[in-house]
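Lab channel / #folding
Pinned by the channel admin:
"Please post every new chain as: sequence first, then the structure tokens as a reply. Keep commentary short and put observations after the output so the thread stays searchable."

First post following the new format, from NK:
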Amino acid sequence: MAAQNDFNIPISDEDFDYSQRGQWLRAAVLGATDGLVSVASLMMGVGAVKHEVKAMILTGFAGLVAGACSMAIGEFVSVSSQLDIEISHMKRIGATNIESESEQLPNPMRAAAASALAFIFGAIVPLLAAAFIVNHKVRLAVVVAAVTIALAVFGWIGAFLGRTHVVKSCVRVLVGGWMAMAITFGLTMLIGSSRL
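Reply from TO:
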């Protein structure tokens, strides 16, 4: 199916500028991947030293709330700064009708909400994966498996929407996620087993 321009006129894939999707795609994929990897890594870190499912779930939930708030605030501040710069530039060049162009200007509230929702969407995956499994080792394995599948899906979605190389995108996301979980698990286990 061909993409459409602002006038709903079909255009071919060759003529469509996929860089137009860059800003919202970056925010959505970054938010979801960050939620997935951050919360999974926190849960794996706690799982390295605590065997109770409650400890992992509470840690994951705290990570979800803190991360969503952090993403929303960070995106709001970043996009607000971008908006200030663009409005200031328009005033400097003598634009007379800034309000008529407001639909094209960045929206800090929309960006903040999108980032928070994307983070929550990603963070729910490891929480649901661990929620109903009593056996500690099985729980850790299921979290890793669920995160692996979700990372591959996020990598594929990003590559598909941006029309980039699928395997390269998936491998990059998978390796990064695995490294984050492994490092967090290993260092937490090391510190937990020491006599600090």
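NK: The mean pLDDT is 84.
TO: also worth noting, The chain has one domain: 29-193.
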